[in-house]
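$ fold --in a.seq
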Amino acid sequence: MSKGKKAGNILVYALMAALIAGLGGFGISNFSGGGTTVATVGDREITAEEYYRAMVEAIRAQEAAGATDLNFATLEAQGIPSQVRGQLAGIEAINGEADRLGLSVGDAEVARQIRASSSFAGVNGEFDRDAYEYTLEQNGWSVSEFETSVREETTRQILQGAVSAGVAPSQQMVDQLTNWLGERRSFRWAAFRATRYLAELEEPTEDELAAFHAENEEAFTLPETKRITYALLTPDMIAGEVELNEDDLRALYTERAAQYVMPERRLVERLVFGTAEEATAAREAIEAGESDFPAEVAKRDLTLQDVDLGDVTRDALGAAADAVFGLEEPGIVGPYPTDLGPALFRMNGILSAQETTFEEAEPDLRAELGRERAARMIEDMISDFDDRLAGGATLEDLAAETEMELGTIDYYPGVDAGVAGYEAFRAAAEAVTESDFPEIDTLDDGGIFALRMDETVSPRLQPLDEIRDQVADALLAERALDRAREEAAAAQAQLEIGGTLGSDAATVETAQNATRANFAETGAPAILADAVFALEAGESTLVDFPGLAIVVVLDSIDPVDAEDPQNALMEQQIRAQVAQGTASDLFLYFAQSLTSSAGIRFNDAGLNAVNSQLFR
């Protein structure tokens, strides 16, 4: 199967997944719009059901992005319904053009794609007619409607391929992007750290603290908070009460043998080739200095992460084991046969064999087994605690009568200290209201909790007396950073009169041939990238960073290295991406033109009926 055809099929499968899975929870079969037409595009109709389904997809996309309490007014303010109508109109305009051209796919292709979808597979993994019809029925589709949608989507893919075929970007655009990404800059920088000056600062006076507190009220103001009382019980709280015997501990040690007795391992990457000749040619190019391992990986549209095997034992390497474990320092061996084909292996590190004795492991084993059994004890208590709460017991009663402990917390989003370090607790605290009754909920470590919201506390400025140390630390940090900026500015001034960048306060670091594409690999702080590529050769600038003042000096600007194989690969990727973007734009303009020519007429009453059904 060609790459183009495969990509088309993936899009069709994605459509079917959206049609089937995207309706979950909304009950499309309950839609009461009947056969209402909400719009016409030329001589084709957009039905109420189609608009409903598309709106459901848009709502689910918003929810997946974190939106809550959605209503039609919120969606309309974001232009969502308008976008949905435009997309549906574009689809029907393209369908109309396909009809005009007499373009379609046969029943055999529709059947093949439906049979290939896992959405309709039976227990044996093969297409199941009953499962197919049942799934469609549950989501309000008839077989003919669904098969028509698959046929039209596939036809649109054919039309899109015809419109976009042969699109090639201009060489000028490719050159501009390649030069922009591949231009090389060499620079130096010195980071002046605020912490270096803290010891030199005097403690602030009371008047200075009060003034700083008053000038920075926003920084010391707590947001609206929920004052919460909770009862908590975790395995750690009762693990000491659990009785353990040595036999159990030794059994756990045996179970964890792979953790405590580890053979010698190697950090290995494996790059598979189609033939042994290709693998041999790649290794010879690496040995001759004409290429390197990362470049060979990139040539195969892979990343180093894709070929990383991690730390492996001799048994995991098959025919390559002796060669890889025979290396005494990092290197490349191969090609050797593998299940996937001939491969080169790069060994990056040696991990010696390690063994932890039972006696050495016993404290950890005891803690682990104690927590595990404590968690089971807590699980057995849940029913009793639930009954107590249902019978009218308060959190204070639970703390007084059981192993649970009582606590309070002022909670707001962002608090993650103490009990708020548990995700389940934070979720419950976010959702709780003053009208909710406490319920037992579980924590990911086997613990349990119940909480009660006592009151809402309005945003408030924390009094200086309560946060004196916090205010003092913030004031000293600001003063230290001011000192760091002064030192950085003085170093920059020395540069302008022919001095050097180095000083006792900061070590000079350098980066050679940094590009926009590889800047993260230079070791320079990412925050310097914009500054480096805004400077001219010989210029310097100051860059602020939390706790740092950085002087950066641009030494030279060099064009793209035409001999670097990575740049040739980058140019190929740019060409492909620009071609893909141009093709997408071309088809978008084509669809807009078809829509404009066909003409759109909306049935406002029908649209309003669907919107009312969605948010009733």
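$ fold --in b.seq
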Amino acid sequence: MTRAQLVGVLIGLAIVAALTLLRASDPPLLKFARDVTFDEYQRLAPRPFEELPVRVVDIDETSLRQFGQWPWPRDRMAALVDRLSDMGAAVIAFDILFAEPDRLSPRSVMRDVGGFDPALTARLPDNDEIFARAIAGRPTVLGFGLSNTGNYRPPVKAGFAFTGESPFDAPPRLVAATPIRPGLEANAAGIGHISLNPESSSAVVRAVPLILSDGGQLFPNLALESLRVAQGASTYLLTGATNVADTITLIRVGDFGVPVTAAGELWLYVSPERPERYVSAAEVLAPGGVSAEARAAIEGSIVFVGTSAAGLLDIRATALGDNVPGVSLHAQTVEQILSGRFLSRPDWADGLEILSIALAGCLLVLLTTFVSPAVALACGLSITALALVASWLAFVQGGLLLDPLAPIFFGSITHFAATAYRFLVSDRERRVVRRAFGQYLSPSLLYRIEHTRNALRLGGDDRELTLMFVDVRNFTEISERLAPAEVVRFLNTLLDALSHHVIDNEGTLDKFIGDSIMAFWNAPVDVSGHPGKAVHAALAMRDTLARLNGADAFGFGEARQVAIGIGIHTGLACVGNMGAEIHFNYSAVGDAVNIAARIESACKDIGFDILVSETTAEALGGCALLDAGALPLKGKTTRTRLFAVVGGKALATSPEFFELQRVHGQLIAALQVRSPDMRRFLSMAKLKAAAVAPGLQEFYRRIPRRAEHFPAVKTTRGEAGE
């Protein structure tokens, strides 16, 4: 394990630990995301509507238009009870508060008007009493609401038994309740609270508290109490977790067991709204009697009386995204219990999700660090798919609410962080490579190393290259006069200045060999016009050396000028990574490399600083070239035709060079036939050369001694002076 990998693992594990602790703290945002996920599950697979003995008698807009605005007088509510009882309702539960006296009662109206005999007023009907008599002896359940003021507690019509630890501190807290009229309170068969989400800040009703507690007494909700009255049961049985206080796991009412949360809440598994669930109160109170369909719907059913009228503001949002009357949710609670289709979030769900975050995070960190981000991504996607499928199957098959979102989200964060770290490290290492080798390799080679898979492998390819060798003249003499440190400074100054021209002209610096430079063009990537770019680099080196000498950059004084020789050849060579697996160089080998090196050595004999082979010269266009003869190079059985590079395109098109070419051709022709005019042409060539390039003086001075380099066979190339 490298140090970078160790640091990456430690950082990744620290992120995993932080995310695991964050999930363990379960902040509100995570709870909200979890709730939304479970809502989506219900929308995809809602509880199917079943024909169960549960109905809602709806005080709807039609009922209000027919019987007047709300609140209705309680003698009408008594009539509603009478009708429902006659229709065979098993239970009549009111999702309505009866906290104040009925102001529409004749007795109350006469008392408020005043001026009437109190004895007469007392004999007038009282609607509360009428309603109380109507519910007496009938399976009627009244509701109460929650209040933050007062100390009223409604009577509890059933007993509570429990197994395990005390459950009194588990349910939501009842501080106070809205009062129920005394006569109604006494005559009701059951009393339950109608609050649907007392401690939730969300507008969506997802869980209904079946039990409330004031610390010493438990109070059932309207739906649970209705189910108890329907069965004629007298006691609720609460089951708690073993050896865990303040926890409820199951509420049994009669023949039905209801799995609940630790706080005694039922996760609502909502079904879509259906008209079959509702019977209009106007239809029940119709003067002409009740229809057969309405009677069949009510008979034997647990009936909840409530309102869907928009002006009465009892509209709630469900997990399905619907807005429904609050009374519908009470009815759906009983439907859910009767159908046995429950949702539950088991005690171990949080632990499983926290553990999955920790394990998946650690796995992704290790895969990203030691294998590859791509493999880690594939593994992460597999984990995501597995989490989604497992969570969905748990919901559909077992009604279990397991959150896939937190493990997926936190796993994505972990993978992103680990991948980002790895790429940052890779980028840092890439910058190190650039800093270390950018002075020696061309940008194209660096790009290939960085972006080509297996670029740094052993092996080579045969390619046409233009090769260059550069050597310092009289280096042995120079080094003898200097201390070793001064020699190093001299070489660094010279070679750094010259090597930049290789890179600037898309070349590749192969190596530095003492006082020499080896470079080539057209590898590792194709370089169009590579012979011309190599020659342009050589001409730039000539200008740079003249500038350095003129500025006395080497500290040798004006009397001692540094000179170089440059040999260039174009030919087939093998280029690639050569060496051992643990250490290799990107280089070129082959006969073309040897020829380029021999051409550079020939600069000493010819007396000129830049020489190119005939193959290179043929590929050039617009350069000022002069025939330098055919030389026998070391190791070659045939002579090699060479050309002196006098200048670039501007010089090649100048009248001065045109005249020099003409005279040079005449000189070579005279030299080949040993004509007496050779000396005259040589003098003319020296004179013309002085106006073109001072460096040609030594070149022409040595030509008479190199007569064998210009055989009698005339060449078109020499005549053209290219």
